[in-house]
Specification:
Elements: H1 3-13, H2 18-25, H3 29-37, H4 44-54, H5 58-62, E1 81-85, E2 90-94, E3 96-99, E4 112-117, E5 129-135, H6 138-154, E6 158-160, E7 166-170, E8 173-178
Parallel strand pairs: 1-6
Antiparallel strand pairs: 1-2, 3-4, 4-5, 7-8
Helix pairs in contact: 2-3
């Protein structure tokens, strides 16, 4: 299910109107309407606030729509890989990865997110996903995804994220500390 569909369903399950959600989020009703129609996304800070206020994981809220896959021929690999994300203190066994589209936010905010998809059973919300890391640029995200897909296809059992950004969290705001390019001198 898409972010827009997830948000709309969750809002309705909570018995909230668009106006009520807009008030909680300190945005206009039109902004909530755009999010639910799929014609826009909230800023990173608002995504975190949505997750918190609706009491749902960011993974579940964003799992399907912002999931983009790179290099479709490697999607068919059936192996799994254990991915560690030292910046987020996460270890997850996945059979594929998905990434967000470009998220709204300032130049010092993360621009993309990466999710691992596990082999657990699907639920109402879709396949089980785990948030793996934030990325400063599409280039770094693409490098990471391509390397993970190659590792899965080669049957490599583990992979440690190399290009994810370090972020500093203050309340619901995030700021890039390290953009994550481990190849820089």
């Amino acid at each position: 299910m898409s972010f827009a569909e997830n948000l709309k369903n969750i809002r309705k399950e909570k018995g909230m109107s668009q106006e009520e959600l807009a008030e909680i989020m300190d945005v206009s009703r039109q902004a909530v309407s755009k999010w639910e129609q799929g014609s826009g996304y909230p800023e990173v800070e608002k995504l975190l606030l949505l997750s918190s206020r609706l009491n749902i994981s960011l993974d579940s809220l964003m799992s399907e729509e912002i999931a983009q896959s790179y290099n479709s021929e490697n999607q068919k690999a059936t192996g799994t890989i254990c991915i560690s994300s030292p910046n987020e203190n996460v270890i997850a066994t996945c059979y594929k990865v998905m990434s967000s589209g470009k998220m709204a936010g300032g130049k010092k905010s993360p621009q993309y997110a990466l999710f691992g998809v596990g082999n657990g059973s699907s639920s109402f919300w879709g396949e089980p996903t785990v948030f793996l890391g934030w990325y400063a640029s599409h280039e770094l995200l693409s490098k990471e995804v391509n390397e993970i897909q190659k590792a899965i296809a080669a049957g490599i059992p583990t992979y440690e994220l190399k290009y994810n950004a370090k972020v500093e969290r203050k309340w619901l705001r995030m700021k890039l500390i390290d953009e994550g390019d481990k190849d820089k001198p």
